[in-house]
Amino acid sequence: MLTDVVENRFRLQDAQKKALARLKIVTIQDLLYHFPHRYENAGDQKTVEGLVAGTDAILYGTLRKPETRRAWKSKRPMSEAWLEDGTGRVKLMWFNQPYIAKMYQDGFMVKVSGRVEGKGSLYIANPEVERVAELPLGSEGTIFQTESDDGDIFAFYPESRGITSRWFRHAIAKVLSNREVIDEINEVLPEYILTAYKLPELQKALVWIHQPKKKEHATAARKRFSFEDIFLIQLARHRDRLATEKQKTYSIPKAKVHADVFLQTLPFTLTNGQKSAVDAILSDIETAPAMSRLLEGDVGSGKTVVAAAAAYAVVKTPPTERPSATLQVAYMAPTEILAEQHFKSFIELFNHLPIQIGLITSSGCKKYPSKVNNTESTKISKTQLLKWVKNGEIAVLIGTHSLIQKTIQFRDLGLVIIDEQHRFGTHQRQVLTQKDNLLPHLLSMTATPIPRTLALTLYGDLDLTILDEMPPGRKPIITNIVSKTGRTAMYTAVRRELDAGRQAYVICPRIDEPDPKKVETLQTKSVLAEAHKLKTKEFSGYRVEVLHGQMKPKEKEATMQALLNHEIDILVATSVVEVGVNVPNATVIIIEGAERFGLAQLHQLRGRVVRSNHQAYCYALTSEGNTTTRLKAFTKAKNGFELAEMDLKIRGPGELYGRSQSGLTDLGMEALKNLKMVEIARTEAQALASNDPTLRKYPVLKTALQHKMDKIHFE
Ligand code: ADP
Ligand code: MG
Questions:
Q1: DSSP label at 35?
Q2: Do 552 and 591 lie in a common domain?
Q3: How remote is the CA of residue 469 from the centroid of ligand 2, in Å?
């Protein structure tokens, strides 16, 4: 029963079938694990008939005739509309908010909540409005009783094209009313965990989450499922981790001694954050098991030097069998330009030390030092490079994805460094590890600010080091929140920067669309329109170019190269494009529609202009009347982590990290706000993974884990 296919058990229309497929609901079990996102109690809700001044009301109905007008006495602009339900209509008024009327259209189905006011004729003052895909049962005048006889709490399921919340409510009710199905449900979590943390058992929790009789039941059930989600992911990560720890690795016994030699050559001293990162890494690589570490730090926080110190220690160490040779390092970057930049940085950092460095991208290969001139690099053929990598002559190989090819064989790969690819780090290490060889150490690096709970969960198999301090002497970016009226002055200021020889980015707004393909198209359109406007109006005479996700990789690279060569003054780009390149001469970033971005994303965008020796500026444009607390926080925050944590609190984790990328359910995402729960799940997962790595005693858990991991890979 549980494994029956939903399509075979219910008569479905094509649109419903498509919607279920999109939601990855195949079996009855999947259906039962499709959870409501909110509940409503009939008692909270009112109809227009029976409203009383001085009370709060939640109303559902159709919005009518939204319009702006001037207030009677003050003459200030305001919005007005009507809300109509089956029992009558009531006026809605928003004072000093003329834009509200423009945001909603006549005929929208909405949920409205606010204070009922007025003498004689009633109205709702400054109500909150939310568009809804369906009206709740009974809001057309007949109140709930007709539809249900088992309580007053109604579950609402996330909206999705082609399928209603109501369909889910009915289908799930039908499944749950079948005793045989319920009997088939076996507990996933070990009993001792349920007992220890007072979590409801699975059968009960499923009923409680879909058909709670009391709100506390829904709460308890949701807690259980969020725990389950986090626990399963952590369990998978810890099992991976244990498997990794069993593998033999290279030891770098004198790592500290070597790294010190390198660090002495630097023209600066390390920040405290860098020092502890280097210490942690060096002790990791000195002995087995192999290092698996994630280094998180804002752009410019100095991750490269930390990685270089580790790389130096590794290449100064001979493999046990070949005392005159050296261990090797592979360094993978997300784009060609970045690989090229790392190649240059490493040459600079190591130029007084005899180390051979190679570069491999799809555009070709290079080697340093060149035979003729030992201060320069030279182009070489791929065949030649691969030969030198294979015989161990090239100690450090830097590259893009081209690094991960079957044809590339290292002689003794001791360390893998991966930049901005943390999701794949452990996987790529496995690919790079040649059969029968020892497992290389792994250092994964990212400038994406991730809150601690998310890092502990998704990267539970990695140790975490955070660099939350910038090298001294940096000029902080000046961040301005700009409203409509500030535009002209902003453009004048930007022109001044351009005339002084600097360059600028303009990031076009993110577009809220459920369909990611559509987002790209819409964003591309907005980029093209904005570029055209700037080119013909505010910045005529300047070189304006575009960058967006629908360009080919080669075109993107060429555009970034042109920006780097200062053949472009202004680059208009979407936010989906990773502008992961440092263009030190770019000192200005304009972010349109800033209120639509998460704080962490805004911070990352701002990081594009952090490289310069010149004063850098960020302009965050907002159409909202008032500067929100969020945007204020953005102007003040010291680092990305602060903002990521704030984002998590204010907007929830979905904003930070696409759900599909993480494999977390919405409930699991919610749980990330709860550090204590994440830590408990981690402790329990660690304990179970080491006590019973094959989950021999927990076959149901094992199957559930497999099912979840399959789903993640699927995405
Ligand atoms: P990240 O890779 O974290 O974005 P980088 O490692 O590229 O940052 O460092 C940015 C710049 O700061 C580089 O020019 C680097 O030489 C410099 N830098 C790094 N650490 C320090 C330090 N402790 N003091 C001064 N400058 C530093
Ligand atoms: Mg870097």
A1: -
A2: yes
A3: 15
Query: Are residues 289 and 171 part of one domain?
Result: no
Give yes or no for a contact between 68 and 102, defined as CB atoms under 8 angstroms apart.
Answer: yes
Q: Is the distance from CB of 395 to CB of 356 less than 8 angstroms?
A: yes
Q: Which domain holds residue 436?
A: 255-467
Closest ligand 1 atom to the C-alpha of 304? 6
Q: Is the peptide bond before 369 cis (omega within 30 degrees of 0)?
A: yes
Residue of 226, 228, 213, 230 whose CA lies nearest to 39 = 213
Residues 31 and 178 in one domain: yes
Question: Within a domain: residue 407?
Answer: yes
Using CB distances shorter than 6 Å, the residues near ligand 1 are 268, 270-271, 274, 297, 299-305, 447, 471
Query: Which ligand 1 atom is at minimum distance from the Cα of 301?
Result: 3
User: 294 in the Ramachandran plot: left (φ > 0), alpha (ψ -120 to 50) or beta?
Assistant: beta
> Which atom of ligand 1 is closest in space to residue 307's alpha carbon?
6
Domain shared by 174 and 270, yes or no: no
By the 10 Å C-beta count (0-12 exposed, 13-18 middle, 19+ buried), 272 is classed as exposed
Q: Is the pLDDT of residue 100 over 90?
A: no
DSSP category for residue 118: -
How far does residue 471's CA lie from ligand 1's centre (Å)? 7
Alpha helix positions (H), 500-582: 516-536, 553-564
Let me know if residue 595 belongs to a domain. Answer: yes
For the stretch 61-97, pLDDT in tens is: 899 999 988 877 777 788 899 999 888 899 999 877 7
Expressed in angstroms and rounded, the spacing between residue 604 Cα and the centre of ligand 2 is 13
For ligand 1, atom 18, which residue shows the shortest CA distance? Answer: 302
Any idea which residue has 């799940």 for tokens?
681
pLDDT (tens digit, 9 = 90+) per residue, 184-204?
Answer: 999 999 999 999 999 999 999
Express each pLDDT in 376-430 by its tens digit.
899 999 999 999 999 999 999 999 888 888 788 999 999 999 988 656 667 778 7
Indicate the residue among 467, 493, 513 that finishes a domain: 467
**Closest residue by Cα to residue 425 from 403, 406, 410, 407:** 403
State in Å: Cα 168 to ligand 2 middle: 47
The whole-model pTM stands at 0.75
